[in-house]
Amino acid sequence: MAETDPKSVQDLTAVVNWKETIAVTRIDDLEKNIADLMTQAGVEEIEGGENKVKEGGEAS
Fold it and tell me: Which of 11, 17, 24, 57 could make a disulfide contact with 6, Cβ separation 3.0–4.6 Å?
């Protein structure tokens, strides 16, 4: 067993919560980056998760 492994239920809970927080933060960052790229590409999201090119934009 590695020295950094949780030794108690409380330690395990803290590690899981910490990893969840990191994962959520990374997902939020990814969603923001995708939205920024879609804006740069001139694509907007419409209901149903479909995308369409804005007027004057180009599909790539």
Answer: 11
